[in-house]
Amino acid sequence: MRLTKFTWLLVAVVTIIYTATLVIVRVENPRHIQAECYRRWRSAYVIKQSPHRAFVNTSNQRNNPVALSEGQGYGLYITALAGRHGWAKPQDFDQLLNYYLAHRDYVGPHQQTATYLMKWRQYRKDGRWVSDANSATDGDLFIAMALDRAATVWPQRAGYYHRLERQLTNDILAYEYNPQTRALTVGDWATSKSKYYRLMRTSDVAPTFFDAFYRLSHDQRWRIVKGGMLDHLADLSGQHRTGLVPDFAWVTAGHAKPVKPWTVASKNDGNYSYNACRVPMMLAASKDPRAQRTLTRMMKFFSQSYHVTAGYTLAGKQLTHHQSGSFSAPIFYAVSRNRDHGYDNLFDSQKFIFSKPLTKDNYYDAALTSIAAMEGMN
């Protein structure tokens, strides 16, 4: 009987040591984490609609899928990043690209003008695959940036990818830009006749994307957009000691203020919630001083707590007590790209997102975690 107890104790000790070693290996081996993230992400979320077309499923039900332009943008971006390591082929990227091209939005009084913007949502209704009209700027930005990355990863396709990138970024400026506020709107539906024309999504402030679009097009408006949106973000960040910014803000040429609850989608529209959580990721690689100042203010707030939770008021009060990869992944990404800036402790506190397999039932968590792994890890 003593031998049996000893044997079980030995098994338990070996199991604990093995599990701990496995976690350490996972966290300390970036290439393994990156490859595994991409493999699990693609297996869980990419659905082939035909031999030459695929989309990213953003619902938790594979038999009742939903495609979003935002999800398609992440999918293209992640696939381009995977292509750098040889884990994805140009055919994988093109299948996702073909789906986007087959679901472009139309504008005008009678929806008569085709654009290179993507319709924001598709789903099955009455046995048919249908699309909802209108675009979402965050999805279009990631699709355009994915094309820019893909042109570098697969140079034999660069001419084609850059041509599509020009067409898409031209239409972003034509239909998703407010020159009065120097900011991108939230979608082509927020026209000059809409009360939402002055609405800005803070996670659309993407200075490195705007730099890439300017390098390709030499269109000065991308410099204006970059400057205007960084100014608005800095204004919002400076309004609270936390440096936090809201999901959405009303902007004018020289001022920005958080929206009130339920202005767009939820009671947390004016809080640091599931849109603004991407801001650290979007600012992380920029060398612009405004981007760095805003990022540093936010990151130093997060560094005061080991347990970063899923959302805050702008004054710093927790909206919930649970953690989420949607919030921790962008923070990990940002600290990985900006070491020795006074918030290095976040590297250790947020790397828990890689200590378990990538989730298969939350496309948003999975996408942001995959980007943090594949682009944030050196």
The backbone outline, from C-alpha atoms, is globular
What does the average pLDDT come to?
A: 94
Number of helices: 13
**Termini, distance in Å?**
51 Å
Enumerate the spans where pLDDT stays under 50 for 5 or more consecutive residues.
Answer: 17-27
The CATH topology assignment of the largest domain is: Glycosyltransferase
In the CATH scheme, the class of the largest domain would be: Mainly Alpha
User: Which architecture of the largest domain does the CATH hierarchy give at level 2?
Assistant: Alpha/alpha barrel
Helix % is: 40-55%
Strand percent estimate: 5-15%
Short synopsis of the structure:
The protein has 378 residues and is an alpha+beta fold.
Task: Please tag this protein with its features.
single chain; 378 residues; alpha+beta; Glycosyltransferase; 2 domains; 4-stranded antiparallel sheet; 3-stranded antiparallel sheet; 13 helices; 49% helix; 13% strand; globular; membrane; hydrolase; Glyco_hydro_8; transmembrane; transmembrane helix
Describe the structure.
The protein is of the alpha+beta class and 378 residues long. The protein has 13 helices and 11 strands. The chain has helices at 2-28, 30-45, 69-84, 90-101, 137-153, 158-175, 207-217, 221-237, 279-283, 289-302, 325-337, 345-350, 363-376, and strands spanning 46-50, 53-56, 66-68, 104-107, 113-125, 128-135, 177-178, 183-184, 199-201, 248-251, 256-258. Strands 3, 4, 5 and 6 form a 4-stranded antiparallel beta sheet that branches. A 3-stranded antiparallel beta sheet has the order 9-10-11, with helices on one face. α7 runs antiparallel to α8. It is globular and about 50 Å long.
